[in-house]
Amino acid sequence: VSPVDVQAACRDTTVTQELLKEGFHRELLVKVELGEDAGGCAVAARTRLPAGIFVDPYELATLQQHNLTKALLIPDAVDVEAPEYVAAALTLLLFLEAEPGCSRCFRAALPVHARYHRPAAGTEAALVALESPEVLLCCCRGHLAAECWEPAEVGAPCSAPNVAPCQWHSTTHRPAREELLLEVPVGLREHSSLVCALTLLTTLLCAGLILSATCKHGHFS
């Protein structure tokens, strides 16, 4: 089969991702429109979460208990308190749900959180780039066009509750944009001396108030 024939036979899969809400606590929305009907197949989006953004595994477990989302984190152990400069990247496998009235349309949303960054010079925001996800299909009973899909190395089951391994397939797709940028507020490095001085003064003031209250109301034998 020539490359021209393959391109004609395989309709483009389109991927759109958005970050909803504001601030450090956002919601990642992923929408996929497949190039062919995927009836009976599981559809997922695999994306790399850089160190500046993470999914809370405890929040994810709660959402899955209430059947509000299906996803896998790799690795599943996440330090939710770590700042960006000591955190590690994560791989997210987000299982998508079919949209009513469109057999080729799938979507899913999941809460994500931005990490604290180091203070920067001359800017009040750091940029976190979230690349377009890889589209995966697992058709345990269906059939995929061999020229459109190829086996993908994914160590994951067909669905989040199911532990049995499955063969996933991936395809090239047309992202709405190559990457999504998240602006994270950061402190100004020029203010470091002022912040340190105010912190020290506040600490000394609070310590003095505690000592004064202890001397006035304490009972010493």
Structural summary, described in words:
By secondary structure, the chain is an alpha+beta fold. The chain has 2 domains: about 15-185; about 190-215. Helices cover about 20% and strands about 35% of the residues. The protein contains 3 helices and 14 strands. The chain has helices at about 5-10, 55-65, 190-215, and strands at about 15-20, 25-35, 40-50, 55, 70-75, 90-95, 95-100, 105-115, 125-130, 135-140, 150, 170, 175, 180-185. Strands 1, 2, 4, 7, 8 and 13 form a 6-stranded mixed β-sheet that branches. Residues about 1-10 have low confidence and may be disordered.
Number of domains: 2
Rg, Å, rounded: 24 Å
DSSP strand tally: 14
Number of helices: 3
Termini Cα gap? 94 Å
Shape: elongated
What would the average pLDDT be, to the nearest integer? Answer: 81
Going by helix content, strand content and strand pairing, the class is alpha+beta
User: Which spans of ≥5 residues are poorly predicted at pLDDT below 50?
Assistant: 1-9
Please state roughly what percent of the residues sit in beta strands, choosing from under 5%, 5-15%, 15-25%, 25-35%, 35-45% or over 45%. 25-35%
Order of helices and strands: HEEEEHEEEEEEEEEEH
- Give helix % range: 10-25%
Reported for the largest beta sheet, the result is:
6 strands, mixed
Membrane topology: Single-pass membrane protein
Pathway: Glycolipid biosynthesis; glycosylphosphatidylinositol-anchor biosynthesis
Family: Belongs to the PIGX family.
Pfam families: PIG-X
